[in-house]
Specification:
2 copies of one chain form a homodimer. Chain A has 241 residues and is an alpha/beta fold. Chain A has helices at residues 19-31, 42-52, 68-77, 93-101, 114-128, 163-175, 182-189, 200-214, and strands spanning 11-15, 35-39, 56-60, 84-88, 106-109, 137-140, 143-146, 151-154, 157-159, 180-181, 226-229, 233-236. The structure holds a DNA duplex (30 and 30 nucleotides).
DNA sequence: AGTCGACCGACAGGAAAACGACAGGCCCGC
DNA sequence: GCGGGCCTGTCGTTTTCCTGTCGGTCGACT
């Protein structure tokens, strides 16, 4: 199933002074089968890093005591090479650049979408796993998504997707053949705090379908790849005959 | 049998200002072997959450004193990660509920069907039981229902069921080989307050049978999977020879 | 053979989903 | 700084298909 086979569960440390955010990330990670702990301050983070020995760290730059960079510095100085993904506020453009140059492995601006965060964490983990890491390619029926190249193909044909379409498709592919409710899709693919309870999901699915169909090998109408489960949600899977 | 093996009984706290509703839920839960207590206000709920230490909470959003989100906040702030399933009015605050399925909680609009509520509670419990949770698959004869993928198969063939058909079948499978009266099925699968004392159940069973038969491995007529117990109800089981 | 319950075809009302058209916003190039 | 194009989401209409009612027929039990 997962490409990044690990014998042990991934251990994630989430550092954010806003407990709801930290918990959100931890919860989602646990659903993926990871172990996750949270810290709400730099001090706590450093202590936990020593005890818990995480495989990866999510680190907010805005902390009450030591700031994110400080935490990173002290982590490095204590000799750990654990990869770090930063979280920064929307307009901290300066922070972004700094974040990358200061030894972080990736960053994401708040508010973020949880699936995107998880995807980045997986990527960073994969890369840091050592040389010759495997590419991550999702595959469902004749659909393939190369997460590294950010390339989606149906059979041989390559499709060009917008960012939102890409994210929705990735989520569907990753969970396939599970049926996902519109609420789940909205909650995972859109930024937390997104107000719209409208029909955005339907719309994106509709657009996705068109692109997928255009690239279908049998120009006629094979069964649609994205199925509607009326009154419930959507699933990506071979249709039942 | 059950996938969510627990040594101790599940402890459920039901919070709803409408006592009949709260009792309905509590009763059904107790019937499933859970321990259940009810609260009719936010204050009472918070007190009980401390004393009773529930494993899961059903929480109406419309409460006389604190509102549902307030209760959730205070629960979380007191450090408990207990999962919550919300109840909301049909067109009331349905939009403010966004963000729940991401944190692992869930919601249901009133009026709901008790089996659906129980199913969601079981799902949320299973997921919060820790990393690497098991999928829930019901199995009766050559019928399998994967509750996570929402996929039903007869042998190899996958059937596509409407929401109502799916719910009735799930109830039958879960209780198999017990004989269920039409009234029981109506009471559990349809929303409480449903007026129809009509023959809906017969009708859905009839439709279900057809779909089940079409997917039967022996194209001829093996005994039907859903048996009629004349004058009483239905049961899902291998026919006695 | 009669009676009563069950089965199921046909239909209609309505709810959910699909999707066309449009508008605001963002980014990019000039 | 300005214009243009693309992406995204809102609105409203159309389409799909799910659900329950009615009633005729069938089958079982007496």
């Amino acid at each position: 199933m997962a490409q990044y086979e690990r014998v042990e569960k991934v251990r994630l440390l989430v550092v954010d002074d806003d407990p709801p955010i930290a918990d959100l990330v931890a919860t989602v990670a646990r659903y993926e089968g990871w172990e996750a702990v949270t810290a709400n301050s730099g001090e706590q983070a450093l202590r936990l890093a020593g005890d818990f020995r995480p495989d990866i760290v999510v680190l907010d730059l805005m902390l009450p005591d030591v700031d994110g960079f400080g935490v990173l510095d002290r982590l490095r100085r204590s000799g750990t090479m654990v990869p770090v993904v930063f979280l920064t506020a929307r307009d901290g453009v300066a922070d972004r650049v700094a974040g990358l140059t200061r030894g972080g492995d990736d960053y994401l601006v708040k508010p973020f979408a949880v699936e995107e965060l998880m995807a980045r964490l997986r990527t960073v983990l994969r890369r840091s796993a050592g040389p010759g890491f495997q590419r991550s390619v999702l595959r469902v029926a004749d659909l393939t998504m190369d997460e590294d190249a950010r390339e989606v193909r149906r059979g041989e044909r390559r499709l060009s997707l917008t960012p939102t379409e890409y994210e929705v498709l990735r989520y569907l592919m990753r969970k396939s053949p599970t049926v996902l409710t519109k609420a789940q899709i909205l909650d995972h693919v859109w930024e937390y705090g997104f107000g719209g309870r409208s029909n955005v999901v339907e719309l994106v699915v509709s657009r996705l379908r068109r692109k997928l169909d255009e690239a279908a090998p049998d120009a006629g109408d094979g069964e649609p790849l994205i199925q509607t489960v009326r009154g419930f949600g959507y699933a990506l899977r071979q249709a039942p005959r």
